[in-house]
Amino acid sequence: MHNFNTNHEDLIHDVSYNFYGTRLATCSSDQTVKVFDLDESADSTNWILNDSFKAHEASVTRVVWAHPEFGQVIATCSFDRTIKIFQEVDHEPRTSGRRWKRVAVLPDSRGPVHDISFAPVHLGLKLAANGADGTLRIYEAIEPHNLYYWSLVFEKVVVPEPEGAREADASYCLSWCGSKYAPEQLVVGSLSRCYIFRKSSDDKYAQCEELPGHTGSLREVAWAPSMGRSFELVATACQDEKVRIFKLSPKSDLESSQALVSSAPDRLPQTADTVPTGDHKYDVELIGEFDDHKAQVWRVSWNVTGTVLASAGDDGRIRLWKSAYSGPFQCMSVISAENKCSDATD
Amino acid sequence: MKDCIRIVHGSDSDFYLTVRPSEDEISLYEESKNGFAKIANRSGVSSIQCCDWSNQRPGMVAAGLLNGNTLLLDLGTQNWPAVIPVRQSRPCNAVSFSSNGLLATGLDKVRNDHCLNIYSVNDDFTSSSSFQPVYSLLPSESLFSLAFVPDSPDILLAGSHKFLRIIDLRNPAASLQIPAKSAEDITINKLNTNLFSFRSDSGSFSIWDQRYLSATSPAPLFAMQSKQWPQAATECFRFSPYSAQTFATLDTYTSSSLRLWRSEIVAPSDSALTLSQSLSALHTSDVQLPPQKPLQDKLWLDRCRVIRPDSESIVSFDFGANSHSFVGLRPYGDLVYYAIPPLIDGLQFDSSNSLTSACNDDLSFVDLKGANLTRAMTSLSLTRGPARDANGADSIISDESSVLSANETTSQSFGYNPVTVLSEDIGSRMRARASLGYDLDPVKNLEILRSFAQISSLQYLIDMWDWINLSEKLRRADMLRTDVCDFHLQGVLGIWNGRYATSARPGSKKKRDVLEQNIAKIAGKIEPNMYINSAFRGVLRTSKKSNYRILCLAAAGWSYSDSEFTEKLQKLQDKGEYEVAAALALFHGDISLTIDILAHSGKESLRLISTAVAGYFAYKDSTENSLWKEQCRAMASELVHPYIRAIFAFIADSRWHDVLDEVSLPTRDRLVIALKYLTDDDLDRYLKRLCAQVVKDGSLDGLSVTGITPDGISLLKTYVDHTADVQTAALVSGFCVPHLFQSHLAEQWFGIYREFLDGLKMFPERARFDIGKTKLGKMYGGTPEICSPQIVLRCNGCNKIIDLSSRKDNASGLQRNLDPGRLDNGHQFGSTTCPHCNKPLPRCTICLRSLGSPIVGSSYNASSKKKNTVYDQWFNFCLICGHGMHAGHAQEWFGLHQMCPVPGCLCQCLFNR
């Protein structure tokens, strides 16, 4: 474990890798966004500043990369109620502050935007946002090569804005299901409610299953990469000091696969299984609930195979969770983050 | 006044001032190596009501007393304090130093006297100095709190029992006031002096902005409302001296928990609106902008962290000497230091399983990038992190093996090194394997797997690839197929049922006949080379499906001739695996050989076992001797080594049923026993049961039962559900899907595995996977899928596609143009027109000649050194502006320029990729 000084002047609120893990973007309370490039020639990891620029008029809460198919594009959201889209301009020199050009501003939110996320690449260039006005919004760049025009394709109040929203220690979050083989869906956490929104067969987003049991504001939700498994995993980080892991098992698929194993000997060998049709439904099962942090949990994140979950809490520790072969998830490792200054003074 | 602590920023170090009316004591502390050291103390100051310190004169403290007098103390010296007396005795509730040497004192109200007196304390004074107020203000208005604004010393905030006033000393009469009952504890944010907070009579704090107090209905920026914060009976409020947006509170309601608040001041929402309007104004010229109103900024709460002091409660606190510490005051006067844990906000894995977290304003990495991984993989046993658990479990839970460490049931953290956890994760394993060339070649895969350090946990993968390797060998030897039937990779159950082998229609009588014939044909090929002893010969004779059995045995890798078998046993013995060799000999029906192997093993325990087996051999035909059998049965359940256990399970009652259910034996060995000893009906039942079992367990060596068939896909599905090892699933199913059968799941695995490799930039590996799969497909007569052309040229004139491949019959000029063979002749380039409508093709923007014409230019003269290559003749387009030119010209032009060569076109062709 090694540290890297970003030279941000205030707290970092988000760090985000691009698809290949070769670029890194950070955003901070100092209202700037920084982009770093991996020095791939070096043997050890070495991040080189690509550019640093002021992105918003208030703390930048999230920064996310679009899939490289759409070019070098990042989106940011902020307490200043806006979402901005930036595109890299190749002919501007590095660290000039001009390399990332703002190409669009999405000003629809009436409150700070807490979380944004690009949909998986096979769904096109789509961006979902959730913020303090309790509203889930989904934008789409209809022509992905033209990032100037984004249309709001979906808008729904998930939870009504609480009274005195500004004073509330509220949080809003969301996460897309990345699987190409599942319907278009995302999990949305607003205050203490957590829902799955799914595009139904009539091409409309609908609020579906709820992931129950949260007794505080949801700090982050993370939909695990499914990696070809027959079920989905969603992890949540909650103010109520718990990390929760939910298992979503499709309702319809189960019978068909059971039928397969005991199929008659003279079955035609053409197909081994069928493409799931119709509207999906999930059985939601809480398979893990952990209060190891003993403090509120801010972050959860899955690795690329959806087999290791990292959680970060107010105790200043990162925990790695992993399941044994079909067993329950367990805390495998605890990483203590250290304060930089205290290291220096010791 | 209650006990309190404040940080005093000195010029080179920070001090902590504690005021403890309960002990009549004012002290100054300094942070030292082992805690806090008291550097100055003044005790015996009775009935302190309020206190403030001067930033001008270090050590100077003013304390308001119950009788209304104000003491001026210099903690640095032990001089008796100067006293500022009052005319009429009443409590002094507030004192405040300004930054230019003024001291304000606020008193309870009495008739006919001012309650706010301001003195100049600039000059040197002694205990005998007499003080006259510079200003006397606010008659008959009880004051509770006072605060000078640090950077504008003429401004004083005063909280009385009715109002909160902002008094400008330059014109004290025109004070700004807002109604506020008993505004206590006014605190000003030093980093943004517009902001101040006070506590109202309800006990809750609110934060205000001075600039917006003149509004018609002034509202706080932030009010800690009891609805949101029911437990917030706040005792102490402090703005952070390190960040303008941070403040902290101490609740006494719950057992004194510190709350660290981060806020965010946001410009009024109108500005956002204006932004969108001005944006839209760019597009539609006339937009009526609404008249601007000065709107109040709003403070949004970003987050509230709770820092719980571990044991004892504290009565007061302040921020410490750096931004991530607090100093608290205990009820008995001790100082205590609290570290604020770093805020980890931002946590993400990258595609190579490295974890990055944002920790305050830095990033920390758990790094698995690049070469680190393979090193970690091949020497995993060394990198086992400092395992802290007392049980000394030395095996981390491996996601693939079902072997768990002993303390798996406890829910405690394991405390492994995070790098170990991540590098043993399936994501890292798949990456390491792929980077070593793990692919569709079983031989190579076995080599790679055997090179890994942690070979025992990979045994099931090795066994599986062993079986696939064997099947591939049989296929290359053409052993398992005829022209009509192919039993390759069908698995034992597949062959036994003859389920998927032929393409003839199912259920028809004809299919059965064809199947029988072909199986007989294949069995005839195998049988002569197979060692068949008398016992098995007997089974074969009574079996109706004896040919099937022979095929199944071959498919399970048991088509040994006598000499091959002896050789295999010898190999095992050479490796020291006497147990396995002995058991195999027994499965083979050669008990004397078993005894022999055990006896010559050189291990004492095995020699003992050999006598036991010999005992069985001697008495095997007797039905007596139940005591001996009892012992064997007991041994069979107690012994550790699965093969030895199997031997005893068999000799206990001369039956194989217990052995067949021994799950620790490899499936393939159990299959061999079943095929050799069970009757047709039993075998049928056993295979079905075994198949259901392996599919349910997802155990990969069960593939020898199910084969790579739809049942095998179900098995892999369970395996993937358990392990997320989509790599193995994709590779294995790639042997049969899609050329032997279709599978939606397998196609998913292919897609996901490809995406996985893409995310790691392992494009060559991904391409090799695709190539390997297509090759396998071709072997079965499949046709490779070629994706349709992604770009076509369409004629501007007739709108038809200029398709070269469809015009192979009469090679057009274009065709010749793109055909290097023709170009080498140095001959004319043919048509420069559309083959459909004969309109000219687009022109090169450099030479202005049509597409298809030869390239000319200064560097293309015959004398030029530059070689006129085929590529230079090709046509190149910018996909943004649509202008094109010869590739050679493009290279020349863009070597010098970035912009499109067409006059007036501002396209930055070189960059707009």
Q: Could you characterize the architecture of this molecule?
A:
- The complex is a heterodimer of chains A (346) and B (913).
- Chain A has 2 domains: 10-157, YVTN repeat-like/Quinoprotein amine dehydrogenase (Methylamine Dehydrogenase, Chain H); 170-254 and 279-346, Methylamine Dehydrogenase, Chain H, CATH 2.130.10.
- Helices cover 4% and strands 47% of the residues of chain A.
- Chain A has helices at 253-261, 340-345; strands at 2-5, 12-17, 23-28, 32-38, 47-54, 60-65, 73-78, 83-88, 100-106, 113-118, 126-131, 135-140, 151-157, 172-176, 185-190, 193-199, 205-210, 218-223, 232-238, 243-250, 282-290, 297-302, 308-313, 317-323, 329-336.
- Chain A has a 4-stranded antiparallel sheet with strand order 2-3-4-5, with no helix packed on it.
- In chain A, β3 (23-28) and β4 (32-38) form a beta hairpin.
- Chain B is 33% helix and 20% strand.
- Chain B is built from 29 helices and 32 strands.
- Chain B has a 4-stranded antiparallel sheet, with no helix packed on it. Chain B has a 4-stranded antiparallel sheet with strand order 5-6-7-8, with no helix packed on it. A 4-stranded antiparallel sheet of chain B has the order 9-10-11-12, with no helix packed on it.
- The interface between A and B is large, with 120 and 138 residues.
Q: What is the domain tally of chain A? A: 2
Low-confidence parts of chain B: 271-278, 281-293, 375-413, 806-829
| Poorly predicted segments of chain A | 254-272, 340-346
What is the helix/strand order of chain A?
EEEEEEEEEEEEEEEEEEEEHEEEEEH
Oligomer: heterodimer
Structural class of chain B: alpha+beta
As laid out across the biggest beta sheet of chain B, the strand order is 1-2-3-4
Query: What's the count of strands of chain A?
Result: 25
Beta-strand segment tally of chain B: 32
User: CA-to-CA gap between the ends of chain A?
Assistant: 19 Å
At the fourth level of CATH, the homologous superfamily of the largest domain in chain A is: YVTN repeat-like/Quinoprotein amine dehydrogenase
**Helix segment tally of chain A:** 2
The CATH class of the largest domain in chain A is Mainly Beta
Q: Describe the sheet with the most strands of chain A.
A: 4 strands, antiparallel
Distance between the termini of chain B: 70 Å
Rg calc of chain B: 45 Å
Rg of chain A (CA only): 21 Å
CATH topology of the largest domain in chain A: Methylamine Dehydrogenase, Chain H
Question: For the report, how would you describe the main beta sheet of chain B?
Answer: 4 strands, antiparallel
Could you say which structural class the secondary elements and strand pairing of chain A correspond to?
mainly beta
- What share of the residues of chain B lie within helices? 25-40%
